[in-house]
Specification:
142 residues, globular
Length: 142
């Protein structure tokens, strides 16, 4: 995990976490250290996009005040895996308020529209959220 950007009232962390145990540990660590956490997980690896494996993520984002999952249906096709639906993601994570995105533009619009005052943003992925402008992420902090 790295501090990607630190502002007066917020911090952005980037983490390579994608295994369920690491996702849960990263969220817990930031929550304990910094309080309010918005966690964004990109399902990007073969295992994380495998419908059979998704249930391993149950509860991993529960420590976050707001939780988002992004995945690319195109990445699923490229990896020649069975299609994954938003419903499957919601069922696997078992968090009613989980926000799921498959469209990079909609995800970026959502992210850049958030208020990060007194908040830590945790970006967990081995990918790039469908082309997320990380330089623009730095600009959202006060």
């Amino acid at each position: 995990m790295e501090v990607f950007k630190s502002g007066d009232q917020a911090k952005v962390f980037r983490d390579f976490a994608h295994a369920p145990s690491k996702v849960e540990a990263s969220v817990k660590a930031l929550k304990e250290q910094f309080g309010t956490v918005r966690a964004v997980l990109e399902l990007h690896t073969f295992s994380s996009l495998n419908p059979e494996f998704l249930s391993e993520y149950k509860g991993t984002l529960n420590g976050a005040d707001k939780a988002v999952v992004f995945y690319s249906p195109n990445a699923v096709k490229i990896k020649k895996l069975d299609a994954v639906s938003s419903t499957q993601i919601l069922k696997a994570f078992q968090r009613e308020d989980l926000v799921v995105f498959t469209d990079p533009a909609a995800f970026q619009d959502f992210l850049f529209d958030q208020d990060f005052t007194e908040t830590s943003l945790l970006l967990m992925s081995s990918g790039n959220y469908g082309g997320l402008d990380f330089e623009k992420v730095k600009e959202i902090l006060k």
